[in-house]
Amino acid sequence: MGISGDIWVWIGAFLTFSIMSFLYKDNPFYKFAEHLFVGVSAAYWMCMGIWQTLVPNLIAKLHPPVVSEILPAASTKPAEYSYIIPLVLGIMFLMRLSPKGAWISRWALAFIVGTTAGSYLTRYLRSDFLGQIQYSIIPLISIEDGSFSFVGTISNIIIFLGVFCGLIYFFFSKEHKGTFGVASKVGIYILMITFGAGFGYTVMARISLLVGRMQFIFGDWLGIISR
Amino acid sequence: MKKSLPLGIVFFAGVVMFFQHFIPTDQSEFIYKYANDWLICIGVYAMLLGIWSLIRVTLHKARHDPNERFYAIVTLVSMGIMIVAGWDVDNLRAGSLFMNMFNYILIPVQATIFSLLAFYVASAAYRAFRARTVLATLLLFTAFVVMLRMIPLGYISELNQYLVAWILSVPNLAAKRAIIMGVGLGMMATSIKIILGIERQYLGGD
Amino acid sequence: MDRLKLIPLIVLSALLVFIINADAGAQEEAPADTAEIVKPAPPQNVRVVDNPNDNGHYLLIRWDPSPDEGKGDNDVMGYNIYRSDKPDGEYRQMGTMPVGFYEYEDGSEEEVLAGEKNLEYMEIGETYYYKLTSVTPQDVESEFTEPVSGVPTADWFHAGKLSYFIALFLYISLVLYFIKAAKSGQKLYIRPLGGIEAIDNAIGRATEMGRPILFVLGTGTASDIATIAGYTILGRVARKTAEYQIPVLVPVNEPVMMSVAQETVRNAYIEAGRPDLYDEKNIPYVTAMQFPYVAAVNGIMIREKTATNFYMGLFHAEALLLAETGATTGAIQISGTDQPSQLPFFIAATDFTLIGEELYAASAYLSGQPLLLGPLKAQDYAKALLIVIMVIGLITMTIGWSFWYDLFSTNIT
């Protein structure tokens, strides 16, 4: 054990402190880490995009022999010419750089948005929606192990009222007044309980992240504690 | 033409993807697989546009703002080094400069910023506490009850555990369902508006 | 396991039986037939049907148990499934099912797997023949059943998704109806939304202070519905900022989103009659990585001293990091997202939060187009219908009827 001799670990520790210093206030160290971080991550993302997406998903499909060294398995497959479409759409998208061709980039954008909208239309209904409806179909009186359950019954009533009032809260075409207003008010109260539960539940996870950082400082860098 | 053709593409792509979901044939699966592949490829092209924007804005800062000059250069140089380091696919292996910069610059900073949340959660709770509204109080009280389960308090803990389990599975679930149902209806309605070309702000409005 | 492999096993077990019996035979005469291998009866009534709702590369093989299941010496442990493309051709074992399962899904849509011909592949419209056997725990296999054939076919509609289709069809009709109603000039009442006023006030404050406005579109993709709602709100905000001549800063973490945001703001400036004020550098791409993006946006808030911060779109863990930093700078903050996990933090740290569906609704409001408001009415009718469904559910389930619950089952294979 003992303090690390690895220059990279020292860099990591320096950056960790630089970022932490932001808690006190904005300062040149933070600003340096921030700008370094932006440059490195933007370049990282681009390189990964090229090597992990563009090469295997586009170039290897259009002209497989090109990738014979890096992706031997893909290079023997026949070329798939349908990939000319993303090639063309991608180039269209880059037309934004020219003031005259900017309108062509909208075609690519239209393809992106249309495709996602079409899949959202069906995906959401299937994955979440119907399941939530089914789970909300519950009996008023809860019977557990053949006998009446008081807690279960209260819980069922609250679930029913919770979903009911929550939906009322999200009504847009009716003024929230009178009984309707009361239901809507109950709805927002129950929503707040949910948000509180979410808040409290996340705290632990966040603290464990901080503990992880401390382990890096005291373990990997200073070598005071063992990991 | 400049406006109606993109709307036509949106409509066509949207309708195809909609029906695709209900058709199980090879052709339909082909469309699904390829459309998603294509989207990813276009995203990488767009990345070039993004990098170009970043370089332009940073260069502008370096030229015209003496206070920002040093930091702008940090961004440009670090980006340049990273791009050169990642130029060859061989450099994506462990131990290379590219991977070291990833592991010892990106990862620690990423993790540190994420861990700042531990402090931010506390200050946000204090902010909500000061707000003194019924809604904020209700939120904080529930959060407090749920957090208590991490502190050993003997008999109270046992009772609290039961209460937390109940909160999570009863009122929490009920409201979440209402949100999910509402969001689902809203999403589907928005998708329809997009496919029909009524919602077209993303194409730059009218 | 194929039959060739079974031969040494059978020989070995026969040898074992022989030795045991030879040993026993030293004391008493063993009956001659115990050394013989008793084959179990094969399975019965084999049927081959097309696997429903698929792309035509799968068949379902079903059978009834062998009469020897659970019977002493020739107890059956499982069933072997063999396939051939000719009735009297060579049969290849495709799989084994243990006792208790009387259905096997055979086939594959991959013609080539890892560079080699995939033997499980099935061609659409070809006839395939099946023979089955039963197997004992000692690996004694029965005689083959007679070959039974089936033809895999592709389906043009997934029958299991019919209920989704109908539900969607009804909802789409409802939305279309209200769009049409709005188009024909019918007045649709929509209650005032709290968030709208908050948005206008927040813009007003920034103009009074003469400081820029920050608009964050979140870390979703350019075509997420929440992001699309964000563009509309951005359009409205940008229009106001153009009128009042204060900059709106939109740092973006996705390049496609950047292009859309630039278009949106540019058009808003043109509509406001101030295209000269538009500056593309105010809507930069920062980086696609989540936390570097946060670091940069936090820096902007502090150094540019933004008076008002908007967070509208799809957010992840960065929600609180941004909102808390913004709160410490004293900015007025308005947030909106459809992510239930991030809503608690926005509610705690920002001045006003559009919760879930409210975000979409606010976007429709702010667009100022009646056509976009129409669907809100459809959403309300659908919610009313959901409430009715729940009430019927409550009644039927309390009585003890489960048909209503089953109707909303989501189990689709």
Question: What do you see in this structure?
Answer:
The complex is a heterotrimer of chains A (227), B (206) and C (413). Chain A is mostly helical. In chain A, 70% of the residues lie in helices and 2% in strands. Chain A has seven helices and two strands. The radius of gyration of chain A is 28 Å and the shape is extended. The model of chain A has no long low-confidence stretch (mean pLDDT 88). Chain B is an all-alpha fold and 206 residues long. Among the domains of chain B are: 64 residues; 78 residues, no CATH class. In chain B, helix 6 packs across helix 7 and helix 7 runs parallel beside helix 8. Chain B is extended and about 65 Å long. Chain C folds into four domains: 37 residues; 111 residues, Immunoglobulins (Immunoglobulin-like, Sandwich); 57 residues, no CATH class; 181 residues, Rossmann fold. About 3% of the residues of chain C have low confidence. Chains B and C meet through helix 2, helix 4, helix 5, helix 6 and helix 8 of B and helix 2, helix 4, helix 5, helix 6 and helix 7 of C.
Give the overall pLDDT of chain B as a whole number: 90
Query: Given the helix and strand composition of chain C, which structural class is it?
Result: alpha/beta
Order of strands across the main sheet of chain C: 11-10-12-13-14
Query: Which overall shape of chain C is indicated by the principal axes computed on the Cα atoms?
Result: elongated
Low-confidence sequence ranges of chain C: 22-32
β-strand amount of chain B = under 5%
> What is the element string of chain C, with H for helices and E for strands?
HEEEEEEEEEHHEHEHHEHEHEHHH
Biggest beta sheet summary of chain B: none
Estimate percent helicity of chain B: over 70%
Shape summary of chain B? extended
The protein's oligomeric status is: heterotrimer
The tally of structural domains of chain C comes to 4
CATH architecture label name of the largest domain in chain C: 3-Layer(aba) Sandwich
